[in-house]
């Protein structure tokens, strides 16, 4: 009986293959650990909601209607607002009332640009208006 010690073919190449199974296992474990340790992203909008059991006020505050039209024009109590500086001065009048601020009901047209509405809300927040809300939602139900 003969025994062949050495390569079966005539070439003298050494065949070295790396076992990649442990490498893949380690990478999967690291990936799972990364997914577990990433904090959950919460996109929350903080709202100051009224107390549900609070008594109704005896004299409701005055309400100002702020309308943003589809072309970007703004009206305050059915009077056109020529520019943002005039709107800011009206916001300052409301903000200077302290805790007993007048309410502002914002009625954006369904075709109004989001940018205009966002600027109005940002200006109101920057100036200190606390009682502002949306009305006229029925136009979005169609």
Give a verbal description of the structure.
With 142 residues, the chain is α/β, with parallel strands linked by helices. Helix content is 30%, strand content 15%. Helix 2 runs parallel beside helix 3. The longest helix is centred in the first third of the chain and has 17 residues. 8% of the residues are buried. The model has no long low-confidence stretch (mean pLDDT 85).
| Total of DSSP H or I helical runs spanning 4+ residues | 3
Low-confidence stretches: none
Strand order of the largest sheet: 3-2-1-4-5
Q: What is the β-strand count? A: 5
What's the alpha carbon Rg, rounded to whole Å? 33 Å
Structural class: alpha/beta
Largest sheet: number of strands, sense, barrel closure? 5 strands, mixed
In brief:
With 142 residues, the protein is α/β, with parallel strands linked by helices. 30% of the residues lie in helices and 15% in strands.
Keywords:
142 residues; 15% strand; single chain
Write the SSE topology.
Blueprint (H helix, E strand, L loop, with lengths): L20 H17 L25 E6 L5 E3 L2 E3 L2 H12 L7 E6 L5 H14 L4 E3 L8
Parallel strand pairs: 1-4, 4-5
Antiparallel strand pairs: 1-2, 2-3
Helix pairs in contact: 2-3
């Amino acid at each position: 009986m003969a025994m062949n010690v050495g390569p079966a073919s005539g070439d003298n190449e050494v065949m070295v293959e790396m076992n990649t199974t442990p490498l893949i296992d380690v990478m999967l474990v690291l990936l799972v650990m990364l997914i577990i340790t990433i904090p959950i992203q919460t996109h929350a909008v903080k709202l100051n909601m009224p107390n549900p059991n609070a008594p109704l006020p005896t004299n409701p505050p005055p309400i100002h209607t702020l309308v943003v039209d589809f072309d970007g024009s703004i009206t305050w109590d059915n009077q056109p607002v020529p520019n943002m500086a005039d709107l800011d001065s009206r916001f300052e009048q409301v903000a200077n009332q302290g805790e007993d601020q007048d309410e502002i009901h914002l009625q954006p047209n369904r075709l109004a640009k989001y940018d205009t509405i966002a600027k109005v809300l940002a200006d109101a927040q920057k100036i200190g208006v606390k009682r502002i809300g949306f009305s006229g939602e029925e136009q979005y139900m169609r």
